[in-house]
Amino acid sequence: MSPRDLINIGVFGALYIVTVGLFNLLEFISPVMTLVTSALSIVAAGVPFMLFLTRVKHAGMVTVLAVIVTGFMLLIGSPPVTLLVGVLGALIAEALLYAGRYRSRQLSVLAYAAFSTWFVGLFLPMFYARDEFLSSPYMAEMDPDYVEKLDSLLSPGVLIAFDLSTVVFGLIGGALGLRLLDKHFRKAGLV
Amino acid sequence: MSGTSPQLGTSALGVTVPAPPEGAVSRRTLDPRTAVAILLAASITIMAPGGLLFVPAALVAGMLLAVSERAWRRVLALPLAAATAAAVAYLLPLAAPWPILGIIGVMGGFSLRLVAVAGIAAHLIETVPPTRFTAALRSMRVPHAFTVSGSVLLRFVPTIIAEARAVRDAMRLRGLGGWLDMLRHPVRSIEYFTVPLIASSLRSAEDLSASALLRGLGSQPRPTSMHPPRFGPADVVAVIVVAALVTATLLWEAGR
């Protein structure tokens, strides 16, 4: 990878983080908004990512992007498992891009969906720490029926549905990114 | 857009140039490697199952670090934020037996962990400039590809935030934007926001990369530092304090 490529990765990493961060600001309205805002930010960040894919044609670039983006998230307090999830997602994305010889539009949308799965890492502890919450002394005072209802709401099924939803929003984001690429950036000569 | 072109004279890109006051490393600040080690230790233990046990220790560590850099506002804000999150986590579900409140409670418990880790992260972000951070990464033998792209990222995030502010202002002037609008037409607001942001950021990126390449970024020899990272007395104190906090937590758990 040439130094110019590395600079491009850094620039798009910064663009990606700022886009994700700004759409996540909505989260402060209420904790329930967390899931809505992460969906929104996955869709929004598809735009810089798809532009990134038009500039990089080297194996390993998506992985480096994933490492620095999730590394930055780690520095601001995300769970460490995010880095692992991010690298796994990026490797899948690389394989998809390679399969399309870095030209295929459909495969690049799929690659963005794979890359987006790093969001799963952010919320993983919330799911595996639920037992701790459900067995807290406060919960012991509650109606067992209620605790059971809560347990079923936070079931592995919900966890899997959440993970799959990042892929779905990734696909939407990738498609939106491609559309905006054609609509604005190609015309402006930025691609 | 905003006229904030990247300051081409700054030194985040590989070449370490003394930039007082931040380049002049005081003996009192932690070595970036120590700060990163403490942060990682905190986030690994706290985010693991059963990690709630370590939240008080991390909060105390975060407050001590804030005291060490005289960030009084953070010394107060940290316990306040933690108390709010704890109240949402433990008191809200008692209010009514609705599962939705239970879920908000679980999220509150998660935010409590996040606040504890973020207290330490804030110290790292406030006291370690990108230059020292990359020098530390280099001395930890992190591969070239990650330090170069990572330092560009750290250098570029503030520039893009400035551009984003300008885009947001421009949207307001035209009567666009606002949170409600964004929720009503999410795709349209994404388009209005990201397209100008990317276009203007790419323009400053061109300048930045030209200047960085001219100044030898990505050249083969390893760059040297004017202030090579060194462990000092502050690091010893920090390690002792963290060890004491961990011991106290474990003793307390054993004594229960």
UniProtKB/TrEMBL annotation, chain B:
Q: Which top-rank group of organisms is this from?
A: Bacteria
For this UniProt record, the keywords arranged alphabetically read as follows:
Cell membrane, Membrane, Transmembrane, Transmembrane helix
Q: How does it sit in the membrane?
A: Multi-pass membrane protein
Spell out the residue ranges making up region: Disordered. Answer: 1-26
Q: Would the keyword Translocase turn up in this protein's UniProt record?
A: no
Task: Tell me where it resides.
Answer: Membrane
**Family annotation (CDD domains):** EcfT (cd16914)
Coiled-coil residues are: none
The cross-references to InterPro entries, in alphabetical order and at most eight, read: ABC/ECF_trnsptr_transmembrane, ECF_transporter_component
Q: Per the UniProt record, which residue ranges are transmembrane?
A: 35-68, 75-92, 98-125, 145-162, 231-252
**Which Gene Ontology cellular component terms are annotated?**
plasma membrane
Annotated Polar residues bias:
1-10
* Record keyword Hydrolase present: no
What's the protein name?
Answer: Energy-coupling factor transporter transmembrane protein EcfT
Instruction: Say which species the protein is native to.
Output: Streptomyces glaucescens
